[in-house]
Amino acid sequence: MTTGVLLGALVVLLGGFMGGSFALPLKYARRWSWENSWAVYSIVALLIVPWIAAIVSVPNLLDVYRSVATERLLLTILFGFAWGVANVLCGLAIDSIGMAISIAIVVGMSAALGCLIPFLMLEPQRMNQRSGHLVLLGVALTLCGVALLGVAGRRREKAEAPKNLEIKQSSAMAEGLLLCVIAGTLAPMLNFSFAFGSDIVTSAIEHGTHPAVATNAVWALALIGGFISNAGYCIVKLTRGKTWGGFGRKDALNHWFLASVMGVLWIGGVLLYGWGATALGSLGAVIGWPVFQATMIVSSSLWGLLRGEWRNSDSLTLRLNFAALGLLVVAVCVLSMGNQG
Q: Which of 8, 19, 5, 11 is nearest to 263 (CA)?
């Protein structure tokens, strides 16, 4: 493994760690409703920071966009919008059938589709080569790890639920599973904007942008689409819940800060993923995405352990959780090896 590839892998891992840690400040924003925190997070993560990064790192940014076909720019925004819809649907699914099952399905499908579709479309000739076999093995291990996390999480949720809580009706479960499947199908669209945004990246490099940060021009456009869908949902929630007043509370200054930190952590992780995946070479979008996703799951799970979220779990649940984390670590190693085949 060359130094550049190793550095790229480490940057992707760091990005995944930041992405898996972004929700921590939300635990301390207790005086705001969810939509207040999510609205500020969306403004920072999906609008302000990506455009500052693009303007600072991409010379002649407007000229870069002018030199790319309009339909390519619109497709990038559409990918971002679809990813934003996935976030909303995942939230609805969590409310319907619980966090463990929802995240396991959505992240698992995102890791698999976000890896396989660019691989099949960009490097189909490598499917029968050693690198293709390793990629498929890595995806399979990732899905197994995510499934085990879902089982462990579901056991934890059942153990912590009130004894008199009624089991959800099968119709509600079917609806929640459908939301998960749709969200999982749309979730990797953010990676598609990177994988299929080569025209924007090429134009940015031709205008003098360093290759390592040329993807910033892609993220700025894609996340506009994500901002539209996320902000739109927040506006609906703020209006229905009459929680607009939370923004002006005298004791809300620290909540503005906490939500902004959420945004910086999340977009920082995405920017690092873009830089690291670029350094991974021709299979950057194929290898980097599942590694990024798996690292997010591992880091968020470890934060949960450190915060005592699993303190009431039995030994079998804990073993399932650690086995899942171990599988995901192995998956990261296998996918990284696939870049060398």
A: 19
